[in-house]
Design brief:
With 347 residues, the protein is α/β, with parallel strands linked by helices. It folds into two domains: 2-131 and 315-344, Quinone Oxidoreductase, Chain A, domain 1 (Alpha-Beta Complex); 135-290, 3-Layer(aba) Sandwich (Rossmann fold). Helix content is 26%, strand content 27%. It is built from nine helices and 15 strands. It has helices spanning 52-55, 135-147, 166-178, 190-199, 213-220, 234-242, 271-279, 296-309, 325-333, and strands at residues 2-8, 23-29, 38-47, 75-85, 95-102, 106-110, 115-117, 157-161, 182-187, 204-207, 225-230, 244-252, 283-286, 316-320, 340-344. α3 links the parallel β8 (157-161) and β9 (182-187). The longest helix is centred in the last third of the chain and has 14 residues, at 296-309.
Amino acid sequence: MHVQRVVLNSRPGKNGAPVPENFRLEETTLAPDLKDGEALVRTLYLSVDPYMRCRLNEDTGADYLTPWQLSECVDGGGVGLVESSRCSTCTEGDVVTSFNWPWQTHAVMKGTGLQKVDPQLVDGHLSYFLGAVGITGLTALLGVREKGHVIKGANQTMVVSGAAGACGSIAGQIGRLDGCVRVVGICGTDEKCRALVEDLGFSAAINYGQEDVPTKLKECCPDGVDVYFDNVGGVTSDTVIAQMNKGGHVILCGQISQYNKDVPYPPPLSEETQETLQRKSITRERFMVLNYMSKADAALCELSQCVKSGQVKVLETVVNGIEHMGDAFCSMMKGGNIGKQIIKILQ
């Protein structure tokens, strides 16, 4: 069987932004015969996510992430259909997902690395298994629940940076559903601001590219900030933390503003910000969703119900064709997506 696949062509420089030329499309053939425990899958959707920037480096800086290898097939979140199987856990016609799905149009995978999913959980929107009803949704929901300390009736204000991204767009909605009276999103374009307020029910949105963030934040959060869901780091986070209330909580989810730099994760804070955190007894704990997988099944059920009932709206940016993986990845790293960046694989 002839398949197309994406391999790692080159790595960006130490402090370099990724470029589409870091990836290369190849034609290859798959052996038709399966070994025991294997399944042949047809790829339907692939995901590109900020954490993948770390996998482009020789050293990912994180013990739970392996680097992509030069001239080898790239992998990440994927969902697809079992076409034939010699494993006990899945049969022909099953919809399956994996964190380590090869960027190929078809692939032979070990059944142990595949998770069978029920299309009814997402009303047939199978790409949602990579986002709102997958690891992204889990990160948003469990991040808010485990580290946000949102209390109904406590008149809390939440701020989300990277608010129009896959995770931020859901985190803000969860904050609102869990009882925050104000949810303010920070993002990079007017179009994203409109989507947050009009489509997702955020109280307000700030365009950091056009507006003075400290001034606008004061206007939008007159009672200060109690919970900060941080996807971005850097200057944006210093600004938000400066306006946080005593006993507030920072959910440290990601630091995309720092990912193209050669710095440790999480990157060091300025002295001024460290002093603010101490003086105001603000907790700032790194949130790693992989440490909370015992709660995943219940959380995915809840996310599914929220999405199906319309309480949580899902935004996606979909690109067609495996040949656009590199473009889609680089666009996502520059904020070109609204919601989850998905690549639909055309067969």
